[in-house]
Amino acid sequence: MNHPTAPSRRILSGDEAVALAAFEAQLTLGTGYPGTPSTEILESLHSLGGRAQWSPNEKVALEVGIGVAFGGGRALVTMKHVGLNVAADPLFTVAYTGVRGALVIVSADDPGMASSQNEQDNRRYAVAAGIPMLEPADSQEAYDFTLLAIEISERWSIPVLLRITTRVCHSKTIVETPAYPVPPAPAAGYLRDVPARVMIPAYARPAHHKLRTKLAQIAEWNEREGPLAVVSGSSTLGVITSGVSFQYVREALPQASVLKLGLTYPLPLERMKSFAAAHERTLVIEEGDPYLADAARAAGIAVEAGAEAFRFGELNVARVRRMEAGDLTPEPKPVPGKPPELCHGCPHRTVFTALRDLGCIVSGDIGCYSLGVLPPFLAMDTLVCMGASIGVGLGLRHTLPIDEARRVVSVIGDSTFVHSGITGLVEMVYNPPPTGHLLLILDNGTTAMTGLQEHPGTGRTLDHASTGKFVFENVIRAMGIPDVHVVDPTRDPAAFTELVKTSLDSGRLSVIIARRNCLLAAGAIKQYEKCPEGNTHEQ
Amino acid sequence: MSNSIRNIVIAGLGGQGVLKASDIVAEVAFAAGLDVKKSEIHGMSQRGGSVSSDVRFGSKVFSPMVPDGEADFLVVLDPTQIDVNRAALKPTGVLIEPSILAGHKLKSDKSINVALLGALSRHLDFPESAWITAITGHLAPRLHDMNVAAFQTGRNA
Ligand SMILES: Cc1ncc(C[n+]2csc(CCOP(=O)(O)OP(=O)(O)O)c2C)c(N)n1
Ligand code: SF4
């Protein structure tokens, strides 16, 4: 089954196409942390029969992937764009160490913020860390470029960034396989190479030089035989583009010549230069930051970029027409739809009702419970990034006048607590504010926001089989927090409100674990508990 | 070129089966050997907010999203979502909404998505059997009878 022979045609999302390619390339392990729009990659890898596991967060996922690749295996590490911030520390140094088996890091960016707290453009990471980057434009390329990423990674012993965006991840388009020969997997086994793997300064200095040499070779390869495509058209208008923007360009400007880049770091600057020289006017059309345009201009290539207004949000066919025409008249505003809300019967509702009624200053976090910011609760005051609820809450406690400080509560979900709340709690024990502090962990037994994934606190693996469980209250008590309560907030909402109030008034450090399964997950959780060996087929 | 492309937008609220419906349409067009693209924004949709999904098919499709004002068909599963999505429809486009089913009884409101696909199917040149195959291929066996019946109700409404 691992050796596909007959070509086949199917309709797949970009996420499914990445998983299929990884599976066909006999991936050793897929790791990651859920995050829209990347989550379905590991889920479909698992349903194909591949080995996929959730890590507590993206940094750990990448580190596990690095170990796999050091050992000669093939690793795929998946995350949403902000996940790469968490994983940035190992990212920058694995660029120096290089790898033996392939290490493909998938960054699923979310221009337009369909489901994210920012719209950072992770193409900048490829440049900053110095790792090659591929940008597929549809599911076929998501499949092809995953295989190409594996090949580049092993050919130059370098990690590769596969940068996809929401419209590639979640659009379904036709994929023909195998469109690209699946390279054979290397044999796993440890080859000792201390100067290449141990990044003390004495070894890291030459490793940096080695990295730059590899990048220069890859740039040259990209010029000669990289995955770029030229659509010939008019000599008056040329467009340089990459990723899904290519699709909008082809539809909006059918007359234009197009240079579509596939490997967008290191860039094929010579190809870009000769393309621009052959057209009266060369326009760069890209979603997000002016990454290609800045690089072209820095290389002395005369290109026009879209106006600053198009840096915000996603592109589409209409916006590309406007970019080409320099049309800056106000764009039509979409009619606002119905915003999402906490499910009726969601346990988070009880908690936010209490926080609202008590007039708390709520240092919030990310998950379904972020909807506590909307009516009828209006009970969240800050939200920055995963895990920030605890540190930000402590900072507020250190700063606000006493009567305000006493009202500050940090609120975090169970998956988020495992992801990046634990070190915040260490800070709380180590530098307690004079007024004490209260942390509420909303343990609904799942990672609900991204579609009900397991995490270490559920004690079940990605395929819902039972495994070692990270028990919050045991760990938190062992950390030396004086007051630790585990309650079902929905059982007696008035008593829950009272508990929050007394904890706030106590001036001590308290943690309340509000434990009640997510309504949407509750039925499935019962099933998993009945059948602890997990689910190996259905995703 | 884009004249040969069919553009369909399906809209409703989270939990109504918008994405399932667009998967079925895409499958039918795919089985007919056409180029197909389907796009949607998932994420918070399970929390009951607005959801919409675009399906485009023809000899060659580029953008996975239907440009505003270019939808040939707008299928809306919840009446509150008509105004939210009307801008997608082209002036000569066809709106397919729940009131089309007035006077017909569905076994369950849950199959309104498939019933409205039945209504849509009358406007498209695919054989009925291709629709039935796609519907049964995308739903659990215990839901087949109810949904095939809903499809027929919509097709004959
Ligand atoms: C670094 C990073 N990774 C992933 C995400 C996506 N994400 C946001 S919150 C969250 C977890 C939500 O689970 P939980 O804390 O258990 O809350 P619930 O949704 O279950 O209420 C995820 C996966 C993100 N925003 N940032
Ligand atoms: S999915 Fe679960 S956690 Fe999210 S709002 Fe619904 S019940 Fe609450």
Folded structure, characterized:
The complex is a heterodimer of chains A (539) and B (157). Chain A has 539 residues and is of the alpha/beta class. Chain A folds into three domains: 218 residues, Rossmann fold, CATH 3.40.50; 97 residues, Rossmann fold, CATH 3.40.50.920; 184 residues, Thiamin diphosphate (ThDP)-binding fold, Pyr/PP domains (Rossmann fold). A seven-stranded mixed β-sheet of chain A has the order 3-2-4-5-7-6-12, sandwiched between helices. Chain A has a five-stranded mixed β-sheet with strand order 9-11-10-13-14, with helices on both faces. In chain A, helix 11 links the parallel strand 10 and strand 11. In chain A, helix 1 packs across helix 2, helix 1 runs parallel beside helix 7 and helix 11 crosses helix 14. The N terminus of chain A is likely disordered. Chain B has a single domain, classed as Pyruvate-ferredoxin Oxidoreductase, domain 3 (3-Layer(aba) Sandwich). The mean pLDDT of chain B is 94. Chain B is 33% helix and 24% strand. The radius of gyration of chain B is 14 Å and the shape is globular. In chain B, helix 1 packs across helix 4 and helix 3 crosses helix 5. A five-stranded mixed β-sheet of chain B has the order 2-3-1-4-5. By secondary structure, chain B is of the alpha/beta class. Chain B has five helices and five strands; from the N terminus they run βαβββαβααα. The chains are: A alpha/beta (539), B alpha/beta (157). Chains A and B meet through strand 8 and helix 11 of A and helix 1, strand 2 and helix 2 of B. Strand 8 of chain A pairs antiparallel with strand 2 of chain B, so a sheet runs across the interface. The complex binds thiamine diphosphate (TPP) and iron/sulfur cluster. The site of thiamine diphosphate has 25 residues of chain A, from helix 4 and helix 18.
